[in-house]
Amino acid sequence: MVQTSNQIEQHIQETRNDLSDNFNELEAKVKSAVDWRAQFDERPWTLMAVAFGGGLLLSALFPARRSATRTGWNPPGGPRYPFGSD
After folding, report:
1. Is 54 a residue whose pLDDT tops 60?
2. If you ran DSSP here, which 8-state letter would residue 85 be given?
3. pTM for the structure as a whole
């Protein structure tokens, strides 16, 4: 089966068009998947749960710092207030 050069060029052009269409469709899907606003519109409760879980994870990784007054530690001689009456 012998193909003419015109048939080969037409086949190449059709293949390019198909690839271009596929690439454009893939690009649209990727933009939609990465767009957090679109994801929130589709799945608001899922994203709220993910945000809550992320907050819990961060709070577990970085425990709260405690001040001296919260731990019950007082400096020697009692508390000192900068503007109090001594």
Report:
1. yes
2. -
3. 0.43
